[in-house]
């Protein structure tokens, strides 16, 4: 119940902000200024699901998602919720068509999954995430694409592992609302 409430609050806060698709740029003197304030889209990989990003200032954002994580070695799929704080310390490319910042962050995830067949096979994990990625922030249309890998230290409950280091990989696309 608490997780559902947290997701609802994050989505409500995110949807309360808007960005202009024609001129989505913040003003600021940092190396990277985002082209938008709030974007929502799809993420494929681990996890696969919905992804959102809310910029708090020109180069720092909250990234969040809800989806499914699948691992053949765990024996079951599961609901995955995450929330990260991202920094965009360096813009690697700036062209008339797009900007490409590097980003890194810290966050957490909650993962609920089933393993095996039968009753009482539910387990969960709390993980500390460190997302590292590249964002392709298009300048002339309200879209961005991202690619990231995310080392995660998971702490399990009701499962064979107690602690496990996982590395997830995902790609995604977001639409920036006007």
What does this molecule look like?
By secondary structure, this protein is mainly beta. The chain has one domain (2-18, 30-176): Porin. Helices cover 8% and strands 62% of the residues. The protein is built from 1 helix and 9 strands; from the N terminus they run αβββββββββ. It has one helix at residues 2-15, and strands at residues 38-45, 48-57, 60-71, 76-94, 98-114, 122-129, 132-138, 143-157, 163-176. Strands 1, 2, 3, 4, 5, 6, 7, 8 and 9 form a 9-stranded antiparallel β-sheet that branches. A hairpin with a 2-residue loop joins strand 1 and strand 2 (48-57). The radius of gyration is 17 Å and the shape is elongated. Mean pLDDT is 81; it is low at 1-29.
- The SSE string, one letter per element, is HEEEEEEEEE
Number of domains: 1
The top level CATH class name:
Mainly Beta
Cα separation of the termini: 32 Å
Poorly predicted ranges: 1-29
Q: Would you give the CATH topology?
A: Porin
- Total helices: the number is 1
User: Can you give the helix content as a percent range?
Assistant: under 10%
Average pLDDT confidence is: 81
| Second rung of CATH, namely the architecture | Beta Barrel
In one word, what is the shape? Answer: elongated
Query: How many beta-strand elements?
Result: 9
